[in-house]
Every structure is written in C-alpha cells, then in structure tokens.
Amino acid sequence: MTEPLFDPFSAGDIEVANRVVMAPLTRNRADDRTGEVGDLHVEYYRQRAGAGLIVTEASQISPQGKGYIATPGIHSDAQVAAWRKVTDAVHAEGGKIVIQLWHVGRISHVDLQPGGAAPVSSTAQPAGVKTFTSEGFVETSTPRALTEAEIADVVADYAHAARSAKEAGFDGIEVHAANGYLIEQFLKDGANDRSDSYGGSVENRARFLFEVMDAVLGVWEPGRVGIRLSPFSPANGISDSDPVATYTPIIERLNGMGLSYLHMVEGETGGARTGAFDDLRKLWTGAYMGNNGYDRDLALERAGSGAVDLVAFGRPFIANPDLAERLRRDAPLNEGDKSTWYGGGAEGYTDYPVLENA
Ligand code: 8OZ
C-alpha cells in the first residue's frame, strides 16, 4: 500500500523523495565565537538525510541577529565554507537541505550582541522571556526600536545571508517569520507599537516581512524560498489580537509569489494544536508543510486527506536519525534525552541508533 507521506513531491522547485521533513531544531553546538558549524554538524545532518527535506536549525543573518549561545550564522565567508561541508554530505546521501534564515530581534541579550549593545526590535518593549547565554538562562534585554534607515540595513542583511546560503550549496532557504522573533515582532500587534509606516495597519506591520521577501527573492528563484509562520503561537512572549485578520492578507499576498512552501506552526509552538490554522491553510494555494506535535497517525491522516503536503517533525528527529524509514516501517522510535537538546557535544546529538538492516 502506498501512502502520500512516503511518496515524492515537488515543493516548488525542490524535488523531495518523501514528505517527511526534518523541522528546524536549535541545538547550540556551533562555535560560539565564530558562528561556524563543524564536523559534528556534518555528521548530524548526514545521518538525517533520509528526510525528504531538512530545514536546518535557525541561523542568524548577521551578528545582531543572534539571540542564544552557540547558534550558527550564515553571513561570514568562514560560516559559508563550514556549511558547504554539511550540504555536500547531505547531497551525497541523496537528501535535500534548506537553511532557515533568522533574526531574533528582541529575543537576545546584551552579552550576545556586538559591542554589548541593546538588541533591536520593532519596539522598545522587552519580551519578558528568557534566553540562554554562557551564564545559563537569563532574562532577555530591553531592546531599542529600529529606525527606518536601520530597517533597510537589516533587509540588506537578509539579502546578504540569502547569497551566502546559495554559495554554501543549499537547495533553498526558509525565512523564519515565526515564534516571536524579529519578523513577528513587526507582524503581531502585541509587540509592534510603531506609529511610522511599519506600524498600525496590517499592511504596515507586514511591510518589513515583504521587504525581506523581496530581498531574498532578488537572490533565489521563488520555488526555492519557503516561509515559516506561527499565527496562533504565543512563543517568546508575543500575541496578536486577531490572527486570522492579520494573516489572511499576508497569506493571500504570499500566494502570488510562487514560493516553495508555507511552513505553518499549527497552534502553540511545541504545544497545543489550537487556533484556526486550517482556515488559514485553506487560503494557501502552494505546497503546505504542517508542523507541531505530529505523530505517525496524524501525519498519515493529514497527508492522506490532502490537509498537508509535507509534515515537519521536530523532536522525533533528535533521537531518530532515520525517522522517515521508521515511520515507513511503523518501527518503534527511540526516546530522546532532553538534557542534551541544547548545547553539548556528540552525546545526544550524533549517537542515536538507526534501525538494523535498513
Ligand atoms: C528553541 C530554543 C531556541 C530557539 C524557535 C529558533 O523557536 C527557535 C528556538 C527554539 O524558532
């Protein structure tokens, strides 16, 4: 019996061997000083190349875009060279890999910022949440609101990161517009308190997002650019008074761009699958990637009915490098060790077993 979940698919211009996607997972094992990935990352991603598509861990587009210890960047020549080893390894195994472009905005700390400066955002209001630095969990720092001229500089940083991703050999990019980071700090009215052309109406709040999209689409064919949204998620201390009203015109405008896929966090990130995400999903005319709390049954059901084209699995991919094969065979899954999710070395990273006689 064949199941769509295990069949090939074209996500825009990205041809995938199956619909099981490795979701972006922050693992904090890059070089904290240089933002380079290393040999461990090459092995970690190589092991997971049986996914139809890998979305890398979120990677900062600039030094200012960093918000946690030991996350990788995609802006320096050395970072590009380091990522090239990862893309080569995944491609040698027949996999596909896109990099998630990230600017954390106010979800950062002065200790992580160039020159110890305040993080930047749409607003000067702090998020009231925690991040992790070399000191452990700390309150995020009070941000400073970007000026219009500085917004243009951040947009240029996205274009530079998009070019860097191309040089590093990725199959495409995913714009991280979810989970309370900089783009959402503009989109959602619980954070955006601006009175200039980037605040107020939905059109204004979405101005930054669409400037970012135009910038990266100047570098990549649209069929190789995905976007991640989380309209209903309160992750990182954010809210919107009417997510359906906010995201309806955004999704309608994204429809016209011919993107590779829409990656939707269905509900609260890492939590309840609540909110009218299926109403927004119905507006979307391109390839659709569902994410959040999927298990095998839900993935088979929603891929089988056409509710989703692709399913992104996060936590299960930590402990099951061969997750796609395990799901195909309905094999048992390894349990992950939460204490090694963020930071550390090979333990809990590259040492999970694969099935015998795969
Ligand atoms: C967990 C820890 C740190 C960052 C996200 C990039 O929520 C993240 C993230 C997740 O999108």
First-last Cα distance: 19 Å
The SSE order reads EEEHEHEEEEEHEHHHEHEHEHEHH
Strand order of the largest sheet: 3-4-5-10-11-12-13-14
Q: Which spans of ≥5 residues are poorly predicted at pLDDT below 50?
A: none
Q: State the name of the first-level CATH class.
A: Alpha Beta
**Mean pLDDT across all amino acids:** 98
The molecules bound to the chains, other than polymers, are: 2-Phenylacrylic acid
Number of helices: 11
Number of domains: 1
> Could you say what the CATH topology is called?
TIM Barrel
CATH architecture: Alpha-Beta Barrel
Provide the helix percentage: 25-40%
Q: In one word, what is the shape?
A: globular
Binned strand content: 15-25%
Supply the CATH superfamily name.
Aldolase class I
Helix/strand/pairing category: alpha/beta
Pfam families: Oxidored_FMN (PF00724)
Domain NADH:flavin oxidoreductase/NADH oxidase N-terminal: 5-333
InterPro entries: Aldolase_TIM (IPR013785), OxRdtase_FMN_N (IPR001155), Oye-like (IPR045247)
Protein name: Alkene reductase
